[in-house]
Amino acid sequence: MKKDMLAENVAQTSALKLAQAIKRRIAQRTWGRVCQLRVEMFADRLVVHGFCSTYYSKQLALQAVREIASSVPLELNIYVGATESNRRRDAPHTLPADG
Q1: By Cβ atoms counted within 10 A, which residue in 42, 59, 87, 99 is the most buried?
Q2: Domains in the chain, please, with CATH?
Q3: In whole angstroms, what is the distance from residue 26 CA to residue 33 CA?
Q4: Per the confidence metrics, is the pTM higher than 0.85?
């Protein structure tokens, strides 16, 4: 039982350190151009969230992640051209179904 808890703590610490390293690398490679940057580690994938003004910055962020974690499945949720508040405001509106 203790070994399982120790192994889990080590895994969580390793995941946290990896997420921090990825966040630092993205900030370095993009010159801080990804706003509200957040990196989450899950058992089956890595998820990167943020906002930037150009697709070039998004591509740089992707390359930064792949430099560190090339074999980990990645979900890249970096939105281009808008901040979070603009993205919500500009989201398509749902039309009611006919009938």
Answers
A1: 59
A2: 2-89 (3.30.1340.30)
A3: 9
A4: no
> Which tokens belong to 17?
């350190």
The owner of tokens 């993009």 is: 30
Give CA–CA dist 92/94, Å, rounded. 7
- Neighbour count for residue 9 (Cβ, 10 Å): 10
Question: Per-residue pLDDT tens for 59-76?
Answer: 999 999 999 998 989 999
Amino acid residing at 23: K
C-alpha count within 13 angstroms, C-beta hemisphere, residue 30: 28
Q: Closest Cα partner for 30 from 2, 65, 58? A: 58
